[in-house]
Design goal:
alpha/beta, 30% helix, globular
Length: 197
Amino acid sequence: MKRYLRIIVMASGLSRRFGENKLLVDIDGKPMVHHVLENVSAFLRKHPDKGTGIVVSSYDEILDTGKRLGLRCVHNLHSEKGQSESIKLGLLLPLDAADEKREAAVFLTADQPWMEQETLERFLLEAAETEAGFLCAINNNISQSPVSFDEKYYPELLKLQGDQGGKRIMNQYLEDVSYMEIDKKELKDVDLPQDMG
């Protein structure tokens, strides 16, 4: 089953625990968010027919970077509503190229700066081809982001409220989940300043 990918970078978080906008903090020579945005852009330059990259953010700096990298940008004016708002904004953006194709939405968090470009490419290509309704990154039997959702699950994603995430839906359909093992370091996310080490 071939799917057109709606590759959604979630970059609206308020970083309350971090103490400042963590997505703009320097990691390995550039702002944290640039790592995932550049990897998505590189994938789409290599595979332009596979999908569309979408950045959902409440920060102008991040949206400007997304535009420079050729990604579609959606301004999240209500980030206080939690991650469900970013999910809905990413899913509801009209995509002309996807009109006649089956879709899957891949949700990427912007605070996983150590994921390698080749790893993301492998995940996205599998998300486009898998027969399963979900593809989920996993390490040591712990499921993590990124996660892809076949379009048949969009109605349930659009019903999420507040800080509810898509995994609550995935966990109701575990028989329809395929997993991809990814190195623990690449899946590490940054919630606190000490996570940057």
